[in-house]
Design goal:
Length: 70
Amino acid sequence: MDLPDLAAARKKAIEGVRSMLSDEIKTGRIDLAGRIEITDESGNLLAEIPFEEAVRISMPRRPEPGQQPG
């Protein structure tokens, strides 16, 4: 796929990762260990996008041991 610049390629890669992860969430399991490689037309590696960089995960805060919730 030809894209005008590296920024456009990164954006497209992140969209692809998010699409793949949205399919995974339906199975109840998300694997963030993957990555997408961005290469030029000669196959030279320009960038890698780890799956974990494509999403932000918010977890509920849990009280520290010995602290009361709330």
